[in-house]
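Field reference: sequence -> structure
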Amino acid sequence: MAASAPNQTAACVPRPWVKEVVVKATVLTLLGLFLALGYGWAKPRFYGSERVAGFRLGVLHGALMPMALPTLLIGEDAPIYAPNNVGRIYKVGYIAGINLSGLLFFGFAFRRPRNR
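Structure field:
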């Protein structure tokens, strides 16, 4: 009988889950930076003090609210809610916008690839 060769595997080969976590963290970071730039563009256009915010602006403000986090973390005072709004309808739109934004942002982050 011939002696079998010892099992030689490279010790520095990353595990598949490590690669997946690194890729997802990188994508989330880049997406967050892109969204922060988008928030910087949208802030002066959609948070006017003279504007009465309704349902549609509530959805937009809710969707933009998570994007304000990088701006708030660096110390800039960023509006995340319109004080001049129509009431309950604006708040319903705001909550819907937050949920839609969270679904899109975190839904892709926690999606598992299909097994082939």
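Note: The chain has a mean pLDDT of 78.
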